[in-house]
Amino acid sequence: MVVEALGSIMILQNVNRANIRAQQSIFIQQNVISGTVTSGENKMIVTQLIGLLQQIRHSLERMIVAIQQLMIMSKIREQDIYPLTKRLLESKFQTMMEAMKQYKTMCEQKREQIGEQWFDIGSQLDSCLLADRPNHFHCLEGMANLLRELNTFIGQYDREENDVIELSYALNSVIHGSGDVIVTGKGCYNCNIYAGGTLTVHGVLRGGEAYAQKGMKIKEVGSSLGIKTVLAVPKGETIYIEHVWEGTVVQFGKKTYTFYEEKKHVEMKWDDERQEIVFG
C-alpha cells in the first residue's frame, strides 16, 4: 500500500510493507515493519545543502580568526592574504574544501529542484576560496562581507518549521525525514535512517545505518553479539549514547571510529584543532 499526503499523516496502529510519504510530519503510534516512511521529501535537498553551508561557515569563521592572528604575529599585509588563504585551505581547512565540492556537486545534480540563489551563494564562495587569482574577497573586509552574506542566506532557512517523524518501533525499514526523527518505543532493528534534524532513540538502535544532520541521542546501540551498526553526523555535531556495544561504527564527516569494547555514557564530537574524534 502507498499513502501520500501534502500535509501530515497520523497512523494509529501499524505500518506493514507499506510506503508512507508526507510533505510535512508523520506520526505512527505503533510499529513499522519492512516499510518506507518519508517526510518533507522536497525539503530534504534544502536541508542537506544548508548543512554543507553551515560547515563552510564554521570553517570560514575560523579561517578569518587565523588570518587576523597571523597578520598580528607575522606582520602579514593585506596583499598577502590570497596566498595565505591558499596555504590554509591546503593544510588546516581541507574539510571546508570537501564541503565546497559536495555543495557544488549537489547543486548541479538538483538544478531543476532548486533556485538560482543557491548557485549565487556558491559562486561567491568559489570566488573567495577557489579563485585562480586575487580578487575583492581576499582582504579582511571582503571575507567579513562574505560571512555576513552566508549568515543571512542560512538564517532565512533556519527559521523554517521542521517536519517530524515519530514512531514506536521499526524493523527492516527505511525512515527518511527532513527534520527530527524520534523513536519512542523499543527502537529500530536493521533500518536505514536519515534525519535532517536530530535523531532521538529512547530504545535500541541495532544493525543498519543512521545519519542525523544535527546530532544524535540514543539509549543503546549495537548488541552483545557485535552486530555492526553505523552512526554518522557532520563534523560540527555531537553523538551521545547511554550504552554502546562493540562493533558499533561512528562517523564524523569521512572520519570513522569503531568500538571494540562495550562502553556506557559516551559523548563524541569532532575536534577541528586536533583533527580527530574526541570523547566528552
Give a brief rundown of this model:
By secondary structure, this protein is an alpha/beta fold.
Compile the SSE list and pairings.
Elements (H helix, E strand, L loop, with lengths): L1 E4 L3 E3 L3 E2 L2 E4 L3 E3 L2 E3 L2 E4 L1 H34 L6 H11 L2 H16 L6 H14 L10 H19 L5 E8 L2 E4 L2 E16 L3 E14 L3 E6 L7 E5 L4 E7 L3 E5 L2 E4 L4 E9 L4 E4 L1
Parallel strand pairs: 1-4, 2-5, 3-6, 4-7, 5-8, 6-8, 7-9, 8-10, 9-10, 10-11, 11-12, 11-13, 12-14, 13-15
Antiparallel strand pairs: 14-17, 15-16, 17-18
Helix pairs in contact: 1-3, 1-5, 3-4, 4-5
Provide key terms for this protein.
single chain, 280 residues, alpha/beta, 2 domains
Q: How would you describe what is shown here?
A:
The protein has two domains: 2-40 and 163-279, no CATH class; 43-156. The chain has an 18-stranded mixed sheet that branches. Strand 15 and strand 16 (255-258) form a beta hairpin. The mean pLDDT is 91. Helix 1 packs antiparallel against helix 5 (140-158), helix 3 (94-109) runs antiparallel to helix 4 and helix 4 runs antiparallel to helix 5. The protein has helices spanning 41-74, 81-91, 94-109, 116-129, 140-158; strands at 2-5, 9-11, 15-16, 19-22, 26-28, 31-33, 36-39, 164-171, 174-177, 180-195, 199-212, 216-221, 229-233, 238-244, 248-252, 255-258, 263-271, 276-279. With 280 residues, it is of the alpha/beta class.
- Our count of helices gives 5
Average pLDDT number: 91
- Helix/strand-derived category reads alpha/beta
Radius of gyration: 21 Å
In the predicted model, the low-confidence regions spanning at least 5 consecutive residues are none
Count of discrete domains: 2
Helical proportion?
Answer: 25-40%
**Helix-strand sequence:** EEEEEEEHHHHHEEEEEEEEEEE
- Percent strand: 35-45%
- Termini distance? 45 Å
Overall morphology: globular
Number of DSSP strand runs: 18
Largest sheet: 18 strands, mixed
